[in-house]
Design a protein that fits this description.
Layout (H helix, E strand, L loop, with lengths): L10 E4 L6 E2 L4 H8 L7 H6 L3 H19 L3 E2 L3 H10 L3 E5 L4 H11 L10 E2 L11 H9 L7 E5 L2 H10 L2 E5 L13 E3 L13
Parallel strand pairs: 1-4, 1-6, 4-5, 6-7, 7-8
Antiparallel strand pairs: 2-3
Helix pairs in contact: 3-5
């Protein structure tokens, strides 16, 4: 891919689980409880179910996610990156496939709530979930920013594809585990800090 001018990227949008947090979700367990085939997208599968069945499954999923939020830890490299970007005058947003309620509770648990304005934390009920780009576009609108000034950072294919569809730069955080999606991101890193790129300076 052509080189990007990372120093001009003043809006940084983050996935939450596994990107800023240490992963705690056992999605195989969730699929087993909800009767979802291995590898199938949980949200898309539930959305296709009859209303009563879908609502019951979504209640279980919400309770499960809320419980896990209280036991989530901060990735050791996340604070350093956010501190650097904050000093450089960058602005932040969160786009997660969790609910917004769970996202805010998670940010409280990992001590990052003050880094993110509440209206810049979006979950799956705020916009169609990733990889749909609507959530990124909504965040950019609220930040009065254009895609060419923004970066989407995540640890999963949905994050990268949402960013690309919205026109932002994309960073895949693979944390030393080959994902097979490396060719779809503008930048691939094993750790959030230090990013192997020319970040904005203070």
């Amino acid at each position: 891919m052509h080189p990007l001018d990372w120093s001009s990227r003043s809006v940084w949008l983050f996935d939450l689980d596994g990107t800023l947090t240490i992963p705690v979700h056992d999605f195989a367990h969730a699929r087993a409880v909800l009767g979802i085939p291995t590898g199938a997208d949980i949200l898309h599968t539930l959305a296709a179910r009859p209303p009563a069945e879908r609502l019951e499954a979504e209640r279980w999923l919400r309770a499960w996610e809320l419980d896990l939020a209280d036991h989530t830890g901060l990735q050791p490299d996340a604070q350093a990156l956010l501190t650097h970007l904050h000093r450089a005058g960058c602005r932040f947003g969160i786009l997660t496939r969790n609910t917004r309620e769970v996202a805010l509770r998670t940010l409280d648990a990992i001590g990052l709530r003050s880094r993110f304005a509440d209206h810049l934390v979006l979950g799956r009920t705020c916009a169609p979930p990733k990889p749909h780009p609507a959530g990124i576009r909504l965040l950019l609108d609220r930040l009065h920013a254009t895609p060419d000034r923004a970066v989407m950072v995540g640890d999963y294919l949905h994050d990268v594809r949402a960013g690309r569809a919205a026109g932002t730069a994309t960073v895949l955080v693979r944390r030393k585990s080959e994902r097979g999606w490396e060719g779809e991101a503008d930048l691939v890193v094993d750790h959030l800090w230090p990013l192997d790129a020319h970040l904005p300076g203070p």
